[in-house]
Amino acid sequence: MAGKNVAGNLESVVVVGGASGIGEATSRLFAEKGYNAIIGDFDRMRGQRVSQHLANSSYCHVDVASEASMRAFAGYVGENGGIDHLVHTPGGPSGEELLAEQGKKHPKTNAKIHPITGLSPDAVYATIELNFLGYERAVKHLTPLMLKRRGRDHSICGITSINNSKSPKFSKIQKVIYYTRKSRNISIINEICYKFGKYGLPIYSAMKAAVEAYSVVAANKLGPRVRVNTVAPGSTYTPATIKEKMNFKAVAQKTGLQRVTLPEDIAKEVYSMATNPAVSGQSRVVDSLQFLAEDRSRYQRKKKKEASKK
Description:
The protein is of the alpha/beta class. The chain has helices at residues 21-32, 44-52, 67-79, 95-102, 121-147, 202-222, 239-243, 248-254, 263-275, and strands at residues 12-16, 36-41, 57-61, 85-88, 154-159, 175-180, 185-190, 226-233, 283-286.
């Protein structure tokens, strides 16, 4: 459960993008644990609705693509309980990049889009803005509010993706033996290879990698006062991925746990990292063991069965 800060108030978490998907699940979990939850989101109607159903919660509009909006949001946070923990969840590919991954044609030109050579500058910048610059803005404007509050543990958590990550500690082919003296169990992990770019979306993947790299450096620069971590979800069942028409059945079949990752799964890991004072500079994968699968069909539609068999 949440403790008290130096002013005697509840510990406070700020969830940017906290009105939908992973962000909403995170807002709900922290509120259930007794935190003062400040929800920042572009969607005013949904943000207000989520906030109204949570105890010790408030909502403020924020546009992560706007420096002025993020600055104003930080002002609201400072006047409404301050901040102990920051969770930043917005992200996703641009429409053009998603169309390219799906093999669809551009609605205006009616031509197929190549994911490397065919993206427009506007589409590239939109993805950079949403997935990296928004995170940088949030950290820049909200961290000073944490540093003003002495005597508490503070943390920042950014959401990345398995699109940008290798399986931790493994590259190419390795054999790793874990030995536990107490149980004398030996586990052998053999020939694990997790490749960059496995799921396409080059600009999106690059920006999520940027968030992870930025967070490691930030952990060093802000420690010991503020801890900084990231969580890398697999294909997760959210309003955004539903809109993208992700093939969740195919995703589940391709994971080691035979399930689709849920927003609540990510929220639990975010909460764990926020409340563990020994964890900083880390990235944790939450993907239902998706990284072991060759999942190339998550955006592909089901093939029609042959009308007749020969």
